[in-house]
Specification:
This protein is of the alpha/beta class. The protein has a single domain, classed as Rossmann fold, CATH 3.40.50.1360. It is 32% helix and 20% strand. It has a 6-stranded parallel sheet. A 3-stranded antiparallel sheet has the order 4-9-8. It has a two-stranded antiparallel sheet with strand order 5-6. A hairpin with a 2-residue loop joins strand 5 and strand 6. Helix 1 crosses helix 2. GO terms for molecular function: 6-phosphogluconolactonase activity.
């Protein structure tokens, strides 16, 4: 992580999520003061669940100024148990006063086609977000880390890693036998802030690999290919391990 952003190590998972929650609120307040809106892209998977529950328990926030986006999505209907949107809805969105029209699911209905859904989401981002050189600009993107070094749905060996002309793309992941839709590397590069969150001893091996960097003949992992000078890593001590 030394070569890919600042790293903050917290003693345990509870303090990790307290710290990330406080930091998100600070970034939200700053964005709202500067531009009147806070555009946040949520991460999927299991890691952010406790963060979303903590956000949902806040006494107050300028929820009417928050706009919610998604960093990636499984290609399932929005009420499916595997849907990132469903997890975010159940843990956060149902409990806070963000206007429904300011929540932007990647897959908003049961009928979809992955590549068309990706193109529609790219169009939605361009229509609602500030633009810089034609690229939509998110204030913060939350990111997790998979044991294979993937982040969002940018998996090793998939063609989406080479996409340079759109902020959102669909990718078939052979080892999962499934389609995913994800922000692309250029979309992450144009965000104002990236926040990686990793928890638990199960993440220590891949974090050690990320710190070491690619060995001779190895390709960079997807998380290593994320290039944004405004990147922060938040880890608990178990995830940090000996990395």
């Amino acid at each position: 992580m030394k070569s890919n952003g600042d790293c903050h190590v917290l003693p345990d998972a509870e303090q990790l999520y307290v710290t990330v929650t406080e930091h998100l609120l600070h970034l939200a307040d700053a964005a709202i003061a500067a531009r009147g809106r806070f555009h946040l892209a949520l991460a999927g998977g299991n890691t952010p669940r406790r963060l979303y529950e903590r956000l949902a328990a806040l006494d107050s926030a300028d929820w009417d100024r928050w706009e919610i986006w998604f960093g990636d999505e499984r290609c399932v209907p929005p009420d499916h148990p595997d849907s990132n949107y469903r997890m975010a809805r159940e843990t956060l969105l149902e409990h806070v006063a963000i206007p429904p029209e300011q929540v932007h699911p990647i897959i908003p209905h049961a009928r979809f086609e992955p590549e068309a859904a990706a193109a529609d989401y790219a169009d939605t981002m361009s229509a609602h977000l500030p633009l810089r050189a034609g690229w939509p600009i998110l204030d913060v993107v939350l990111l997790g880390l998979g044991p294979d070094g993937h982040t969002a749905s940018l998996f090793p060996g998939t063609g989406i890693l080479d996409v340079q002309d759109t902020p959102v793309a669909a990718a078939y992941v052979p080892r999962l036998g499934a389609w995913r839709i994800s922000l692309t590397l250029p979309a992450l590069a144009h965000a104002r802030q990236l926040i990686f969150v990793a928890e638990g001893a199960g993440k220590s091996e891949i974090l050690t690999r990320l710190l070491r960097g690619p060995a001779a003949g190895e390709s960079p992992l997807p998380a290593e290919r994320v290039s944004n000078p405004h990147t922060e890593w938040y880890l608990d001590a178990a995830a940090r391990g000996s990395a």
